[in-house]
Amino acid sequence: MFNQKKFIVSHAPFWQDGSSISTKNYHIMLAAMLSVIPGFLQYGGPAVAVVCFSIATAMIWELIINHISKRPVSIGDGNAAMIGLLFAMMVPATTPWWGVLVGTLVAVVIGKQIYGGLGGNPFNPVLVSIAILSLSWKGMFDFDEALLAYDFDHTMIYPLAALKAFGPDSVSSFSSVDLLMGRQIGGIGSTCGIAIIIGGIYLIARGFIRWEISASFIAGIFITALLFNMFGEESKYAGPLFHLFTGYTLIGAFYLATEDSSSPVNFIPMLIYGTGCGVMTILIRNIGAYVDGVVLAILLMNIVNPLLDKIRPKALGKVVGK
Amino acid sequence: MIKRSFFGLQKPRLEYDIVSAAAPEPREISASETVQLFSNTVFDKKDQVALQPGDEVKTGQKLTILKESEDYVISPVTGTITSISPCTGDFGVQMTSIIINRKDKEEKDGRFNEISKTPSLQNTKDFLAGLPGVLPSALFSESDRKIDTIVINGMDTDLLVNTKQYIVKTSTSAIKKGIQILKEITGIENFVIAVPEALSLEASSTGAAVKTVSSIYPKALPHLVLKEILGKEIPAGSSFEELGVLLIGAEAVASLGTAYTTNEIPTKKIITVIDKHGFKKLISTILGTPLKDIFSALSISAEDSDRIIIGGPMTGSSVYTEDHPICNDTDAVIVQDRNVIPFISDNACINCGECVRICPAKVPANMLVRFLEVSQYEEAADSYDLFSCIECGLCSYVCTAKIPIFQYIRLAKYELARIHAAEAENV
Prior knowledge:
CATH superfamily of the largest domain in chain B: NADH-ubiquinone oxidoreductase 51kDa subunit
Largest sheet of chain B: 6 strands, mixed
Order of helices and strands of chain B: EEEEEEEHHEHHEHEHEHEEHEEEHHHHH
Number of domains of chain B: 4
Order of helices and strands of chain A: HHHHHHHHHHHHHH
Distance between the termini of chain A: 53 Å
Helix content of chain B: 25-40%
Low-confidence stretches of chain B: none
Distance between the termini of chain B: 49 Å
Structural class of chain B: alpha/beta
Number of helices of chain A: 14
Largest sheet of chain A: none
Largest interface: A-B, 48 and 77 residues
Mean pLDDT of chain A: 91
CATH architecture of the largest domain in chain B: 3-Layer(aba) Sandwich
Oligomer: heterodimer
Low-confidence stretches of chain A: none
Strand order of the largest sheet of chain B: 1-13-12-16-14-15
Radius of gyration of chain B: 22 Å
């Protein structure tokens, strides 16, 4: 008996399809890097610094919280790093170091860890942070002011701010192709539409994000903007393509609204959620007080998510009314 | 192990292994020295124990541990009992293990031979309840006479396994005889046999109505097979017998036929053995043979930190020793190399929804697991369809967070059954 072999005894199933949280997060980061690189090329050193500092501090905050709450160290799952990267993609390249430090603190600690860590957060941590920061320091997300020191060969105004202040005529100099190719100013990784779309399609094809949410988000934006453009007051509202390629629309559709914990998983709820995000975004942009509506629209739909996910198919053999 | 495809957008497609047209004869492997049997009878010191270590037993002899008990096991060999001891199975099931040392000279017990000319439900209950392939106990219970259809499952319910299919392919006459006996002793006229497309020709010669089963996992699981055949869903939590259906494995029907044809109690079991490299062999061995005998005969080496699985990769169970015997429900034995054993974790659910989208029973597994983790079983059953689960294991298979969802579900069902049993006793 003493020489008995020690086998691994565990329960079924004995197979697993090889997916894991870290694989998923690293792939999302890989895809996101695709749209960060144009930001590096455009804004140079400061952008690199913001991205690196953001990822590093997000991971450090996570580590600190792990120690304080005496929980297993969870930076290995890549989620903190991903939060840091997405946060950096949304801020201007000239964000001060303390802005990044506070931003990642809010994202990791208030956005995620106080709810019990990954999977427990009711809101997208990055968006919680962006929302709190933009309410606390107004100038931080004024891209026109923040990027004053730069001069590129394209129009140096933030398209959505110009639209809000001066109407669609002021942004007629932006062609859709220019916007799509990233010839606009904005957050470090949120301006180059084509890169975000390629990254998003990669994630959808690999099954890391849910296509239903991205597709319905874009459809919601497009249809609502089109309705405003067609039936609204003449020359007051910009066209759907403008809305699609400016601000946080694309990064929202592919990276922010699709965050697992704060979005629904059933088919119909996913469509309602995505469409809701899109519709709310355009409502805020066109008739609300804020320049970009994506952040608040997604946060709003995050609140509705648990209720939406109650809409689900009848389980096998379920007897209604029993 | 089948991994997620590169394009993870599409659902994983797990296909059953269909027995090949040129399947070789199962290799005969005999138990070397000892066989081990499990009896459901549990005894303590006060009880009158009918068997003692040192007792001589014959092949086919009924072994009843307690004098008054109806429960028995059939000795598959001739030899001497060396130990009778209590043991514990999956989920803490109490059993008694009987170890028999084999003798070279085989002697046959003739009691079944005397009555086998007159097949009856009572005779079957008295001698054949432990047939290879397992006859369902509902066959013998008096209260369930409403049953009007017997469904024979000729498709293995788990991946990789070929046992039942092989029986359908090669033992059609035994199955045919088994069906005749069942008709005779139960009076039930409706017989349906569920088989994969490839075996429909063989199945049609058994005389039962043939129903083909899709080769995509988990279509051969009992709930889904019966849903196809009956054309309606089985209400969650109710048994098949309540709907008037009895599900019997093809091997049990074939064994029943063989028993009344040869007038001997069959003791051989067909098993699919899969080694570390995925090579598959069909073997035939007597019940009670320890796994190590099979491994040495097939020169399979199971080392420390490997895993020995009884049953298929999705729904089987693992054992901790090579001494574990072949039981009458052992359809497959798999040895999994330590390098391919996936780890499980205590991560919280990240709500990615993979489980919800793959669940064939449309159970909201993402919500369910949140309740099961904190032992809120009643809430899970009332609001999140715990009893709709058909136990395919796909939720754990696709889980990104590597949560053992399937085990949580099985534990919850077990705990609820225990709570309800305790409540019923205290009323």
